[in-house]
Amino acid sequence: MNQKERVRGVLLERMKMGKPIDALLNSLASRAPSTLIDITIGLDPIGGAQLTRALLPLLTQIEMRLASFPIAPQHFYQRLAEGSGEAKLELLKTVISMHPQENWIGILSQQIEGLDAGKLHLMAIHEQPYFYEMCVQYAQNGMRNGLLYCSQNLGRVEPALALLQEGTLESGLHAGALALSRNPSCGMIEYLAALLGPNIDLPLSTMLEHISNPKVLDKIEKVVFWYPRAYKTWKTQRKQ
Description:
This protein is mainly α. It folds into two domains: 1-99; 101-240.
């Protein structure tokens, strides 16, 4: 039995008995990183949420060793996520905190979050200068759910603008309505005019169909008033 087989056996036994594995993994990361990488993402990885959670504090250290194999960080995390079970979201959160601006985070997000890709990533970086850039990336990949989620929870225009430019008009207007509903002062209508031109009566009307909160409608009435079709929709929504 070689070293890898012995380590694998000890690790599996401790996991089976519910014993801590942190010290063993820490030792492997320092003294036998190739063994650690093999048992986590090799041909027959151990996998499991317990292993992934124990690896989280060691990821920076493991990344430093990857270059000598060579294995790109994104490929390591994609492989690790495959066997992470219920710890997948914890893994994604940790990797986002380590690489918030990397384009491949979108690929990992899609693997872990599926159709909701981008929720964790975009919410984590919404105060960063590259927030819009990442919104565009998700829009280009057709991941609208995460963008809609951010519009609804942040009241920011960037997800809507990204969808209007790289997604569909319908999804962009929906995101704009969600942003307005959260934050009527976000300037979404002004951005819409700047993006689509001054004649935004029809798209604005469509956007208003997604807004039912009377307080929000009242706050944007002065802007909507100048667009006949949109104002007619505004009146209909206000009466509901």
